[in-house]
Automatic annotation (TrEMBL), chain A:
<keyword id="KW-1133">Transmembrane helix</keyword>
<keyword id="KW-0812">Transmembrane</keyword>
<keyword id="KW-0472">Membrane</keyword>
<dbReference type="InterPro" id="IPR048493">
    <property type="entry name" value="DUF1980_N"/>
</dbReference>
<feature type="transmembrane region" description="Helical">
    <location>
        <begin position="42"/>
        <end position="65"/>
    </location>
</feature>
<feature type="transmembrane region" description="Helical">
    <location>
        <begin position="12"/>
        <end position="30"/>
    </location>
</feature>
<feature type="transmembrane region" description="Helical">
    <location>
        <begin position="85"/>
        <end position="103"/>
    </location>
</feature>
<feature type="domain" description="DUF1980">
    <location>
        <begin position="13"/>
        <end position="103"/>
    </location>
</feature>
<protein>
    <recommendedName>
        <fullName>DUF1980 domain-containing protein</fullName>
    </recommendedName>
</protein>
<dbReference type="Pfam" id="PF09323">
    <property type="entry name" value="DUF1980"/>
</dbReference>
Length: 104, 306
């Protein structure tokens, strides 16, 4: 797979995961279950994190779009996701596990 | 009947989310700060600010801890970044160990949880500082070889500040967001793995088995270390878990729990292993275990006269 397309795929998956976590937190707030899960003092920060996660998720989406249309060059810094399919599937499954538990 | 299984699953879900939700704000804060530091702090500045004298250096690390209240989840990417930018190893290590405990947030939490025992707050802070001092001096004098795992991160970070690292034309803040996102995934996988393991153990092992170890003696300290290691909670959560044990466990063992836990637990060990070589992590672990054990026992004897 061409490098930029491979990266774009990673960005899409990451964007979805980050947004998913944001939605999970919002879901917890809406169903009033946040107090069951965290101390009351922390609930403000958790809500702020939901916003942060959503912003990061959307930016990942932007990056995916930019990768595909060629505006963004693939950079050679340390954050390159690994090439191994197995590793990537395992890691993203790990991230998806809590989300699945929330929404299923 | 599926009912017994169902409550275990429910417990597991609740534990898992408690841990994750407690940690996520701190991880986000940590990766954002780490990315900000990468963009905006040059290594020359770090070298200028850092004292040469080891004792002053350790004091500098204490000061950083007071100023930057971050949980250990968020701390490790920040320190990795700082060390790569030229901060001496021993200061970074002290910061990782002491930072999660000696800060205003945790001070307030401990005070709230142990209102009837204010000496617990001072003991916790004091013991943490003492451990930091000992390990800082050890690392300064005895650790010769660079224990950082070789990654493009450490190699890349030494490029001069002129070569500003932006992926899209010019915008530094967007780069911060991008780096924060990648670091979140780097660190997050350890957090989630640790949280899953911890939640499974907490959901599957019956409470009373956990409580069966009683008061006093080395066994309660050892048990509390093991528990803290396995539970892998952020230092504020540690506080409230410990206070829930206040009736059953000795004050000294609770102190062990609250100082050992934030410094060394399953989740942070995994994260440390992603940054440092395993031999170094092992040495750190042994030192922490030893000093916390001895320190907590000494404090227990003198403060509570047990």
């Amino acid at each position: 797979m061409q490098e930029s397309k491979r990266l774009a795929l990673h960005y899409v998956v990451r964007g979805l995961i980050l947004s998913g976590y944001s939605l999970a937190i919002i879901f917890a707030v809406q169903t009033n279950s946040l107090s069951l899960l965290t101390e009351p003092n922390m609930s403000v920060y958790v809500k702020i994190s939901a916003i942060g996660l959503l912003m990061m998720g959307m930016y990942q989406g932007c990056m995916a779009f930019q990768s595909v249309t060629g505006v963004r060059e693939a950079c050679d810094c340390e954050h390159i996701p690994s090439n191994s399919w197995v590793k990537n599937v395992l890691i993203y499954t790990l991230f998806l596990l809590p989300l699945v538990m929330v929404f299923v | 009947m599926l009912v017994p299984d169902f409550t275990v699953l429910q417990d597991f879900k609740t534990m898992l989310f408690s841990i994750l939700l407690d940690a996520i704000p701190f991880i986000l804060l940590g990766v954002i700060m780490s990315s900000l530091m990468q963009m905006f702090i040059s290594e020359a500045w770090i070298r200028k600010m850092t004292p040469k004298n080891p004792l002053l250096g350790i004091l500098f690390a204490f000061l950083l801890s007071l100023l930057f209240p971050v949980c250990e989840c968020g701390m490790i990417p920040v320190v990795r970044r700082l060390i790569a930018k030229g901060m001496p190893l021993y200061i970074g290590v002290v910061f990782i160990l002491v930072g999660p405990i000696v800060n205003p947030v945790v001070f307030a939490a401990t005070y709230t949880a142990f209102r009837s025992q204010p000496e617990m707050v001072y003991s916790r802070m004091g013991l943490a500082l003492f451990v930091g001092l000992c390990i800082g001096l050890y690392v300064y004098y005895f650790v010769r070889k660079n224990p950082m795992k070789n990654s493009a991160a450490t190699l890349y970070a030494t490029t001069s500040p002129e070569v500003s690292h932006t992926h899209v034309q010019g915008n530094k803040w967007l780069s911060v967001m991008e780096h924060a996102g990648s670091e979140f995934f780097d660190m997050g996988k350890y957090l989630i793995f640790g949280a899953v393991v911890t939640a499974s153990i907490q959901a599957l092992v019956p409470r009373d088995e956990l409580l069966a170890i009683g008061q006093g003696g080395a066994s309660s300290h050892v048990f509390m270390m093991g528990l803290a290691f396995v539970l892998s909670l952020c230092s504020t959560s540690d506080t409230f878990v410990a206070s829930s044990f206040a009736g059953t466990f000795s004050a000294g063992s609770l102190l062990t729990f609250m100082v050992f836990g934030p410094m060394l637990d399953f989740k942070s060990t995994l994260m440390l292993l992603s940054v440092f070589r395993w031999r170094f992590v092992l040495i750190l672990a042994l030192l922490i275990i030893l000093i916390v054990f001895v320190g907590a026992n000494v404090i227990e004897r003198h403060v509570w006269g047990m």
